[in-house]
Amino acid sequence: MKRMQHYYRRFRLCYIEAAVISVLLCAFLLPSMERYQHTGDNYFRVRLNGIEVGSVESPERIDALMAQARREVAAQAAGSDLVLMDISLELTGSERLWGRVDSDRTLIANMAQVMEGSTRETLHRSYTVKINETAVNLGSYEEVHALLKQAIAPYDTKGIYDVELALDQDREINVLEAQVVTTAQAAAREEPLRVSAGIEAEFDAMFTAVEPVTEKDFEAYDTGLEDIRYAEKIEVVEAYLLEEELLSVEEAVDLVTREQETQIIYKVVAGDTLSEISLNNNIPMDDLIAMNDALEDENTMIRVDQELVLTVPEPDLSIIWSEQQVYIEDYEAEVQYVPNDDWYTNQRVTLQEPSAGRRKVASLIEYKNGQETGREILKEQVYAEAVPKVVERGTKIPPTYIKPIAGGRLSSGFGARSAPTKGASTYHKGVDWAVPTGTTVVASNGGTVVFAGWASGYGYAVYINHADGRQTRYGHLSKVLVKTGQTVSQGERIALSGNTGRSTGPHLHFEIRINGSAVNPLKHLN
Asked: How far apart are CA 366 and CA 272, in angstroms?
């Protein structure tokens, strides 16, 4: 116990001595110490999308660290892709005497980890192929080449053609234009160009100038594919696109080569008929009539240069190719026309019947999507001359016919019918419009009145002969306003409608006769 007290007194003595020394040191040093100065925030905690990624002593470092983290994340995706992220940065600053900040490597690694989980979308370096209004997106230059090569493959069965993409010099932006070249041309572009020079060039030019032009034998023609090209201009541009916007090569080929219904304008040429146009374009006659308001039925007359709307199946990317062929055929000579200025264009007479000839031919034939579009005869050897068909035809535009009455209800059509009254015909040779008695009747076309008076069955009637050989008749009139032999103009007042003759009520009976035979007037009225 006494020993414990002894150590306790010694501990107290040491404590007192230490306190006295501390007081003396403070008294000695205090005059030389400065007061602590506040310098502001010098310690910053960094949070990315709400996740703490480390701490820095200055905000100025953050931008550079963020950029490096983005580069590392993008490099992991693909060097040519663009990575889009949703990033929210938050800095919380404080002032500290002591603090530990993270190294650049630690901060970059932590930021990259958060960014990988925050990637919104990745835009891939891609290529857009534009054909008219259609665009397809492919993931690489090789896929673009494969698409364009597959489009011509069905026609280039021997693989002698290739596809090149050349810079379009007419565009301010970088746009590539696709063109078809032979594999030999493509290979030649990769070899040095040999050019004749000096005396050699002079000899080349001289021999070319004096080389005689000789006619080729049929055996000298290289039959088969001669040329191939795209019908449309194809443009290719670089783009950055999402994965879901890209197509496979197979999908792109199907899209641009699949046939779709496309409307075209067809201009009528000499010798065309509606049935031939329907047959040649594989369009049912009913569909052809439905597409064109100017066509009433299959008997509607068409004229040269008249434009018709046709719907044909065509792909977005059309291929045009030509090939040489040598063959023996029976052929028809072109029809020879003899103009007659006194006839109308719908009047014609065959002066000579044709006879087919026989010949051997070398031809250059052009196709578009499998349909022949042109044929050029390069050489022919005739075994039997064809005899042409000779046709005399009129040159005058035929007159038009107008409805002879304003308004009215069509009460009876042309053709077979039940007899409306006792003694009436069961085959109606015209059409009837129900109108009040006294309605004005006009000449459907200009001509000469050949009858004006009472006609059995017709009641009061007017007959007019026209310059094209047709005749119009107007019946059941209440009053005739013209005389036989009088010349009238189209639209001129000739009578008043009525209810005379065999009639069941007030109306106008109207006929058109061609060569004495009644035809349906509604098919000839404008």
From this structure: 22
Whether residues 137 and 246 fall in one domain: yes
Of 117, 137, 169, which marks where a domain is finished? 117
The number of residues making up the chain comes to: 526
Residue 12 placed within a domain: no
Q: How far apart are CA 32 and CA 157, in angstroms?
A: 100
pLDDT tens per residue, range 202-248:
545 555 555 555 678 888 888 889 999 999 899 998 888 888 888 99
- Rounded CA-CA distance 433/4 in Å is 146
Q: Which tokens in the block code for residue 249?
A: 């090569």
Write the CB contacts of 228 (distance below 8 Å, at least 6 apart in sequence).
152, 155, 156, 161, 180, 319, 320, 321, 322
pLDDT in tens, 451-476: 999 998 899 999 999 988 899 999 99
Residues 416 and 379 placed together within one structural domain of the fold = no
pLDDT given at position 35: 45
Inter-residue contact 242 to 194 (CB < 8 Å) = no
Residues 442 and 352 placed together within one structural domain of the fold: no
Dist. CA 314–CA 63, nearest whole Å:
56
- Band (pLDDT 50/70/90 cuts) for residue 22 is low
pLDDT at 349: 94
Show Cβ contacts of residue 156 under 8 Å, excluding neighbours closer than 6 positions.
Answer: 225, 228, 321
Residue numbers of the domain that contains 109: 43-117
pLDDT at 18 (0 to 100)? 63
Judge if 342 and 429 occupy the same domain: no
Are 498 and 485 in the same domain? yes
Does 501 lie in the same domain as 438? yes
Based on the domain organization, do 54 and 145 belong to the same domain? no
